[in-house]
Amino acid sequence: MSSIVAIVGRPNVGKSTFFNRLIQRRDAIVDSVSGVTRDRNYGKSEWNGREFSVIDTGGYVKGSEDIFESEIRRQVELAIDESDVIVFVVDVEEGINPMDEEVAKLLRKETKPVFLAVNKVDSGNRMDDTYEFYNLGLGEIFPIAGMSGSGTGDLLDAVVAALPEEIEQTEEEELPRFAVVGRPNAGKSSFINALIGEDRYIVTDIAGTTRDAIDTRFNQFGFDFNLVDTAGIRRKAKVKEDLEFYSVMRSIRAIEHSDVCILMVDATRGFEGQDQNIFWLAEKNRKGVVILVNKWDLIDKETMTAVQFENKIREEIAPFTDVPIIFTSTVTKQRLLKALEVAVKVFENRKQRIPTSKFNETMLPIIESTPPPAIKGKYIKIKYCMQLPTPTPQFVFFANLPQYIKDPYKRFVENKLREIYDFEGVPIDIFFRQK
Ligand code: GDP
Ligand code: GDP
């Protein structure tokens, strides 16, 4: 379970610069596979051997210079709700701004650890200007320069030390976790309620197993699992007005702590930006994904067929298109159990381990008949491959010149792998390494 660090502060203080510095290295690895970057406000970071997620909350309310105070307030409240540690960034060039005071006031009331980063301290003589920020009443200050990275090491040492202990999971929590995610009104609670209505499927009701989410333990298809209701999180939230991006923010923790995400889409609205963002959060976290196109009862099948809808979604989620898409209705109860059954299958796909000898027998002939293209007259040879013993499927191919293998070839290998083995709904990683 990874902890969440939120970056807050008014526009232009350097939040995204600092954020990019934190996630840089990790992202390069993950995105080299898919070749795309999508949500630029969320990423994974690692410091002193501790992994954590970073959210640039400013990114979710960006857009204008003259941002409203009420929006900053929401941003900070959201950060307080959704994160474990908060980094509050201010700008030494500008000194204390009334909006900084506003943010500080909110943060002072909180018990969560807050670190005050005074940014743009590029030179020694700017150091003297940092002291005024003690007036914000948030304790120690961390002078940094997000651009060069100076001072960020000390700040991160402190941040990581303040992250909550990684809790050992109880047996109950080790059950597979399926998170029901999606935009407001997609039908998440209706889905869960419909399933709960069929109470013969339920074993027990465990409220608050995790901090916010509501878990329901199911036993179906000879399989025990927890269904995590993220709609419940929203209901409890302080924020009344449910702005779209908050549904993304609020999904983060549930997604991170899940094995499979059941992403519900409202068929009457189509598959839009926020759906894509939530999908991408699941993919980025290497979680299994099942897409439910819900409210299918409301669609006029003359104008929109399932195949058309499905194709449109696959265009949006490319290149990770090997994902089950199921058309449901919580009103007519159409395919609700089917959805669970598929989620169970995706869970199993994600856990599957391919024996090394079998894997070599299957993959090496394919690679031999379609090798990576030669570069500068040099032939690239792959002699051996294996699945790594990692929690999510990762495959390594050992080559004489791995640095010359480009993304299109990686995709070719991934496509072949998906044709042969069933990894439907599961993001996979492929690496080429030196023999
Ligand atoms: P955000 O709106 O808070 O996300 O701020 P940005 O990260 O977009 O940065 C706003 C401006 O401050 C940009 O022009 C950055 O180049 C600049 N900036 C960020 N970090 C530093 C720094 O360490 N030193 C200096 N001098 N400028 C910086
Ligand atoms: P949530 O915010 O994702 O939990 O969405 P809800 O479950 O609260 O559903 C939002 C609205 O859509 C409610 O008025 C539901 O009755 C309605 N709804 C949910 N699923 C369906 C469905 O399959 N068909 C139809 N026609 N309406 C639905």
UniProtKB/TrEMBL annotation:
Q: Which Gene3D superfamilies match?
A: 3.30.300.20, P-loop containing nucleotide triphosphate hydrolases (3.40.50.300)
User: What Gene Ontology molecular function terms does this protein carry?
Assistant: GTP binding; ribosome binding
**Which Pfam family, any one of them, does this sequence belong to?**
MMR_HSR1
Q: Which UniProt keywords apply?
A: GTP-binding, Nucleotide-binding, Repeat, Ribosome biogenesis
What superkingdom does the record give? Bacteria
**Residues of the EngA-type G domain:** 3-167, 176-351
Q: Which family does it belong to?
A: Belongs to the TRAFAC class TrmE-Era-EngA-EngB-Septin-like GTPase superfamily. EngA (Der) GTPase family.
Which HAMAP family does the entry link to?
A: GTPase_Der (MF_00195)
Please give the name of this protein: GTPase Der
What organism does the record attribute this protein to?
Myroides indicus
- The encoding gene is der
